[in-house]
User: What shape does this take?
Amino acid sequence: MSLFYQFVFYVFGLVAVVSACIFVTRKSPVAAALWLVNVMFSLSALYILLDAQFIGAIQVLVYAGAIMVVFLFVIMLLNLGQPGQLVDTRGVLPWLGSGGVAIVVLAAVLVRLPRIEAVDALQLPPETLEVATRAAGAVAPVATPLFTTYLLAFEVTSVLLLVAVVGAVVLGRRRGEMMGGGGHGRGELVGADEVLVHGR
Amino acid sequence: MMTHGLAPLLQVARSQVPPPDVGFAWFISVPLIYTIIKILVVFTVYMVSAALLTLAERKISAWIQDRLGPNRVIKGWGQPLADGVKNFMKEETLPAAVNKPLFLMAPALAFIPALSLWAVLPFAAPLPLKWGLMPMVVADLPIGYLYILSLASLGVYGIVLAGWSSNNKYALLGGLRSSAQMVSYEIAMGMSTIPVLLLAGDVSLGTIIQEQERGLWNVLSLSIAAGIFIVAAFAETNRLPFDLPEAESELIAGYHTEYSAMKFSFFFIAEYCNMVTASALMVTLFFGGWTVPGWHAVNSAPWAWWKTAITLAAFLIKVMFFLFLYMWIRWTLPRFRYDQLMALGWKVMLPAALGYIVIIAAAILGLDMLGVPRTAVHGVPVYGLCLLGLNIVLLGLLLVVIDRGRLISPASARVRAAELARLRAVRERSSLAGRATLGAPGMAVRESSGVGD
Assistant: This one.
């Protein structure tokens, strides 16, 4: 492992950890959201250092580019008030309790992790990912198992997401409004075609 | 040993293991020097062209409107320089109660994604040098296209943060308006390029260009995708007819209301940079990239310096055509209304792109199963021509059956036959009276687009 590689790895690792700490301690929700974007970026850099270029690009595209933008939208529209006026209503005890649990779990993982023997399914293939990438492109090594071996899990996940989308629509619509039937909603959306029609 | 994926990005990793006696000398390797030179050249060309584009925009607008345009500072050529000096000399204002770090950061956030996109765009054939082949791309990433998609999705941060941090309700509403537009069209843009990836079978831009070199240009074999992509790219760069984010004539300017001097003009530099990047993307994905159509010898190895020069010229000419198209359209078409913009993005382009993916995937599967060769047979690109035929049929269906004068001109609508007769009678009366009324041309347009109901 070259010195350059190690240097870059530790820089991004450090940025990720520090940004995550700042993220949970900010009072302003917008600032917190932006620090979380920074964490996503650093994680993406770490994925790319591990030769998982596809995952790295998707990490930025999905989390930083789509999900966090929607988060920012919601936060800005909610108008939570001045950050200085927000107070944490929880006392000190839950803070210490949850922090303590987290530290114990983290320590257990750190102690145990280097000695774990991976099961056969999780063993790295004989050729590294870089070789596979050079032979078949960046997407095929991820796509082939996803659409053959794990096809059922993939499809079930997509159904789960569909259920979540339908649920969001049901929760999001105004009370008393019928789905798709009423003339009111239609006029609002179709306006482009309907409003300017002359003599109709 | 673990190898690392930064290799293409920095191109130092080819000599990854340092020779023991020279210490850090491996770091200053030939590929690294190449990369640094390429970064400097691309950055300089990019910035200068952004400045020249502001001049080109004024000259072309003047030409279209039959005016002279800028003609004072060195006969107009010094206008970008004069603009720059003016912007530096203006007072920098910082309104009260802005969120200072974000307010200062937002112009840079709008600009950096557009600049970084150039890292993966190939702009000429590789150049053979004494020290080895120099690929004419800053970093030949295997995930080139995904890199572009993910960085392009970050451009919205600059706008939304500029609007929010200004502590001004008009700026906030402007920021939300434009980011809603960008998020909507980003989806259509991403979806419209999936057929390109399906056809190339890879996400690397080099493969996409090669695929077009040996077959047809994607604009022919995937015409509808090209159309959707070009429209979505106009919306993504906030240019007319989609310049709702700015809309200076009817709305408060929007997210950059509170900015002044150089910070204000940085948003405009970002817009021009975005235009250059979007034009280069159209060329790479749909118009064969740097290849010269019909001249296979210049597009393939063995490489020579003159091949690099010719392909570079071909690339620049193609990009300049699309930059001209941007300006041409800006000074020709009026702006969409906001609801029309959203309806076009979500109800027309997204379903069309999704349906097109399914059809093209089925067509590619079918053609491969029939054993149609990807390469040209006796100089005839059969595969591309089959897809071209399919596209012509689909385009006919889209325009004649589904559209019928509705989507292409969203402000008009289908008119009943009786109504049409009444409008014609009105027009004839007015023409008989010898008055060329202003309404007449508009009625003619409505008639021609409304026949069929």
Q: What stands out?
A: The two ends of chain A are 74 Å apart (CA to CA). Chain A touches chain B through 48 residues (CB under 8 Å). Residues 7-80 of chain A form a domain with the Four Helix Bundle (Hemerythrin (Met), subunit A) fold (CATH 1.20.120.1200).
